[in-house]
Every structure is written in structure tokens, then in C-alpha cells.
Amino acid sequence: MQRFEEEFKERMKQNAPKRMPLPPSSSSGSLSCPSNMSVPPSFDLKRRKTSGPSGSVSAIEKAFNMAARDHLHGEIARMFYSDGLPFHLAKNPHYASSYSYAANIPISGYLPPGYNLLRTTLLQKERANVDMLLQPLRDTWKDKGVSIVSDGWSDSQRRPLINFMAVTEGSPMFFKAVFCSGETKDKHFIANLLKEVIMEVGHENVVQNICAAKNVEANQVTYDKCSWITDVSGDASIIKNFIMNHSMRLAIFNEFNTLKLLSVAETRFASVIVMLKRLKLLKQGLQAMVISDKWTCYRDDDVGKARFVKEKVLDDVWWDSIDYILAFTSLIYDMLRECDTDMPCLHLVYDLWDTMIEKVRAAIYRKEGKRKEDESKFFDVVHEILFARWNKSNTPLHCLAHSLNPRYYSEQWLSEDSSRVPPHKDAKIYTERIKCFKRYFTNFEDRTRANVEFAKFSMKSGLFNDVDSINQRFTIKPHEWWAIYATCAPMLQSIALKILMQPSSSSCAERNWSTYSFVHSLKRNKITPQRAQDLLFVHSNLRLLSRQTPQYKQGETKM
């Protein structure tokens, strides 16, 4: 056995591969190649592969022109920093496309446009270009109709102006702004401006005019019944200001709350409701703050206000009042927010108001512990305010739009509430609808045909008796339903497609003033009215057109 192992080891030694001798070391410690190994003349073992000699540029850097790129980055960044340009300008798609075009199509000796060229020739060219981009939208006005929306404002130099926008199917377009210096802005002046705009748009395309109006009405009875709401909102403002107007108190507040207190301007929409909603979310943090050792140990010069804040924050009755206010005002707030859009919703307003008023009644009666047949003086005051406001904004056009919404004739909608009736059985809606028909169809024969078509539509007779037509009245959008199932009623279909595409609010015109203040700012306070209007036309419509692109809903340029 031992002999067998020795023979096996000897054979393994004989078959093992021979090792190559290591090359002798040079005096410098570097490796040298054996004499029998050939080396290409261009190969240098001392040269580093990843970078060139000191002061030289690597092949990769030369290929991508890194030095020029870094220099251009520095120039662009210097432009941003020197003029205070906001960083989000880099998200503007036109910013990226302009530099990409210049890089890919080199123009020898090119210089960027100067001051005069930007404000004159190029501005007029871009206005003409935007006007061309808007032409497809104008072409839809004949079939879909258009709403003229207007609102007034004063610029940074206190010059009054009125802007006009054209809206259809959620696609607003800035039309023009009129400077009214030295003019009395009464109803006659406004009416004449509207006539001019209507003639420019085409009177046959215009469905309605919407003008922003701010009405402030009050009486002693209303104030006596609703003054407690003012008291609660006033207390909330005191708490907010007391915390936010001092850095130490604000620091203590931030330790107990992740959300921030809101400073909502009184001119903003529903500022009181927004403030109370945020305060309710902060309730636990506020209560933990005022009972903490830090709040107790903090010595402030206004001890009286600090005590007032602590008492209110720990007062359950005061928080119940906030809950009560939000219980019925949030219903009004939600309804107004749903209508405060440039999307088609004219056909929804009548039902939204009726539903909202009933929900407000239920919320107040539930708080007061009353039955539906009981009387509530507070609700009577609220109802009077809501009803008066609804009567001012309720027009025959609202009633006609309500009548032409197929959803309100469906069994699904009618079964949701036993008090609901289809529009053709509502006496008030009937009266207002007849007014609209007489105004729209001036010819007696045309009006008779339209009435016959409406009778078939409302009673689901004739071709409107199709099963799919009846079932889809509740499920698909009203204008889509009219496009699919109403070819048998061409006169009614034509007016329905126009009315069901219209908004019910001037919100797009009101939001436009923030754009105008951006264009006509203190830095541009000497800009001429005509140039300001051209800038506003280009700026507003480019942004409105961008909403129709996929990039508006995704990617870096979202929203």
C-alpha cells in the first residue's frame, strides 16, 4: 500500500505543468518583458489607460466636447443667477428645445435676438403663430358654440382694464384685453364692449356671456342670526396671528404639528372655510401645545392673548361651533368648487343648487334636533341668502340646459330621491325653457318642430324609444348621448350640443389676472398697453394650448 502511494506521487510530479520563470526585476522596480515576447511599438506600459498626461484632454472628453459643454452650462447658469430667473424656467419645454435646436443646427455667426427685436418683430410673429395654432379651436365654435367670459381688473399703474375669453368644452382661449382709462364702466359701456366681442367671434356661435360680479348685501336680521359665525372666525384669526407673528411661538407650534397654519387672504375664495378646515386638522396638536411645559414656561409680554388662545383651544364648545359651521358651509363650498371651472357644467348647475340647499337644510336640522316639518329661524336666514343668490344666477339658459340633460330623465336618477321629477314635468323649468325656445327659434314653424322633437325626447317615444338610448341616458356624458342617439331630432340636437359644452363660471377670466400681473409686473411698469396685450395673448394662449399636450399630464413639464 505504501509503495503504491509513492508511485502515484511520482507520476503526478512528472505530469505537472512546468512554471515559467519570472522575468528579472529592473533597477527601477518595473516589470520587463522576456526577450522572446514581442511588444507593439505603440504600446507603452507606463501610459495610463483612463487619462492622458498632465494638462492633456482624454479621448472621451474630446469626443463629447466636455470643456465646451461646461462653459455653456456656466453661461446659462450665470444668466439665471444675474437676473434672478426662477429655477423652474429650466422645466419649460421651449427652454430645452431652443438650445437643442441651436446645438444640432449650427449657424455660423449667430447672435441671439436683442432687446428691440424681442419686443417688436418677434413678438408680432409669435402672436401670428399662436393665432394660427388657435384656428382649429375656432373651427369648433360653429358646432359646439362658445361662451364669452369677462372680468375687470386694475394693473400696477392703477389703469382699469377688462379681459375677454372664449370658452367651449373646457378649452378656454384668451381673446383680448381692453384698457378703460377715462371711461365710466357702467352697464352701457360693458354692453357695448360685449357686442364688439360677440361680432368678432360671430353672433351665431355665442351661447352665453358670463361676467364676473361681486355683490355684497347685508341686513340687520341676517347679521343677528349669522354674527356668531363671524365671532368664531375672528377667534380663529386671533389664534393664527398670535402663533405666526412670533418666532418663538411658531417654533413651539412646529414641534407639535406637521401641518402649517394657513394665512389665506380675504379676497381668496372661501378664505374663512379654508382657515377653519386647517384649524380643525390641527386641533390635537394645538391642544398638546398649550398644555405643554414649553408653552407654560414661555414668558410673553402679551399674557392676556396667550391666556385667550389657551382657553379657546381647550374649549370643546368652541370646537363644536367650528364643526357646525363646516357641516353646512362645506356643502356650499363643494358645490361652488364643482361649478368654478372652465369645464362643461352649465347643465349641472340647476340640480347642484337644489341638492345643495336640501343638504344644508338636513345639516342644520340635524344640529338643532328638529324634524323636517319643523321651522328653523337660522335655516330660514341661510335659505334666504342662498335662494336670493340662486335667483340672480339662475337664467332660462340654466333651465334649458337642465331640460336637455338626458340623465335627469333616467330611472336611476329619479329613483335616488322620491321628490325628484323629470324636467318636462317641472312647471318652473317649463316656463324658462319656453323663453329660450322663443329666443332661439324666432320662426314659428321652426319652434313648433323643436317642441315636437323635445316632446319625443322627454317622453322617450319614436326613435328615442331604443333600449340602448334609454339605458345610456344615465351612464354616458350628455353631449355624447346627443351625438349618438339624437340624429332623429336635428334641430334639438344642434342646440343641445352647443349648450351642453358650456361652462357656468367666469373662473378662467378671474385666474387670468395672475397671468397679467406676471406679464405686467413692476419690472415692466413702463410697457405700453398694446404690447402688454400682445404679451398676454401669447403667454396665456401658449399655456392654455399646452394643456392639450401629453406633457402637461406627465414628465418634467407636468402642469
Task: Bin the helical content.
Answer: 55-70%
Count of helical regions: 27
Counted up, domains total 4
Oligomer class: single chain
Query: Spans of 5+ residues with little confidence (pLDDT < 50)?
Result: 16-54
Radius of gyration: 37 Å
Structural class call reads mainly alpha
Give the biggest sheet: 4 strands, mixed
Describe this structure as you would to a colleague.
By secondary structure, the protein is mostly helical. The chain folds into 4 domains: 65-107, no CATH class; 127-212 and 506-552, Nucleotidyltransferase, domain 5; 220-327, no CATH class; 341-499, no CATH class. It has 27 helices and 4 strands. A 4-stranded mixed beta sheet has the order 3-2-1-4, with helices on both faces.
Keywords for this structure?
559 residues; mainly alpha; Nucleotidyltransferase, domain 5; 27 helices; four-stranded mixed beta sheet; 57% helix
Question: How would you concisely characterize the structure shown here?
Answer:
The chain is mostly helical and 559 residues long. The protein has helices spanning 2-15, 59-64, 66-83, 93-104, 115-119, 121-133, 135-139, 141-144, 187-201, 220-244, 247-256, 271-281, 283-290, 293-297, 303-313, 316-339, 349-368, 377-393, 396-403, 411-415, 427-440, 444-459, 467-471, 478-485, 490-499, 507-519, 529-546; strands spanning 146-154, 160-168, 171-179, 206-211.
